[in-house]
Design a protein that fits this description.
- The protein starts with a helix and ends with a strand.
- Helix 1 packs parallel to helix 4.
- Strands 3-2-1-4-5-10-9 form a seven-stranded mixed sheet. It has a three-stranded antiparallel sheet with strand order 6-7-8.
- The relative contact order is 0.15.
- It has six helices and ten strands, in the order ααβαβαββαββββαββ.
């Protein structure tokens, strides 16, 4: 199912008009967390809209995604706009170690709920293994309170397939896992209206975490 997601997103980005406006979460991060000297790693950058936004407010931005189509389109925009402080790479979350000496802030919006538990735990382990304790991480994801959990085919615990794979995060379990892996929560907010669109209002959680 995870591999099927790549095909879905390749097709999605190839057919969709590029969205230039940043997400609400990106605007929140810019206001509350981001510093001009930061070097950002945007995990699962998608169409790059938040990476491009961060490039206006940070020293440098790396955006990574498994969708070759998304990365190709993003790099075309970089060349067209002649930007010098943003770079997109066709890499997975399991390759974040390549940025271990470069990054000061890690951003992952709508990523945790797009991967299974095994990949999630590997991601957390790699964050702990390869990045310094002063590197903060911003996460935003769907929770088990999101109504979309009731749509599509149920394929596992809190896992569904509705156009593509999703895993709805049980907050108590996720916070327990963060504590086990020695992360502290610096900021937490959950609820509706965090990423409302004309067609959807998902129930999300926002976290800012850092190693203890």
């Amino acid at each position: 199912m995870i591999n099927h997601n790549i095909k879905y997103w390749d097709k999605y980005y190839k057919s969709k008009i590029k969205i230039n406006l940043p997400s609400n979460f990106a605007k929140f991060i810019k206001k509350k967390v981001l510093k001009k000297k930061d070097i950002v790693l945007d995990v699962a950058t998608g169409n790059g809209r938040d990476s491009f936004f961060f490039s206006k407010h940070a020293k440098f931005v790396y955006g990574i995604d498994k969708s070759k189509v998304a990365i190709k389109l993003n790099n075309q925009s970089v060349n067209h706009l002649k930007l010098k402080n943003v770079s997109f790479k066709n890499l997975s979350s399991q390759q974040i170690k390549f940025f271990k000496k470069k990054v000061t802030f890690i951003y992952a919006r709508f990523f945790i709920h797009a991967i299974n538990t095994k990949i999630q735990n590997r991601f957390l382990d790699d964050l702990k293994k390869y990045f310094k304790k002063n590197v903060s991480i911003g996460l935003e994801f769907r929770t088990t309170d999101d109504m979309l959990i009731n749509k599509g085919k149920k394929i596992g615990k809190n896992e569904t397939f509705y156009t593509h794979y999703r895993r709805f995060i049980d907050l108590k379990e996720f916070e327990k896992k963060l504590n086990e892996k020695n992360f502290q929560i610096l900021y937490k907010k959950k609820g509706l209206n965090l990423s409302k669109t004309p067609t959807e209002n998902p129930y999300l959680c926002r976290l800012i975490i850092k190693q203890k």
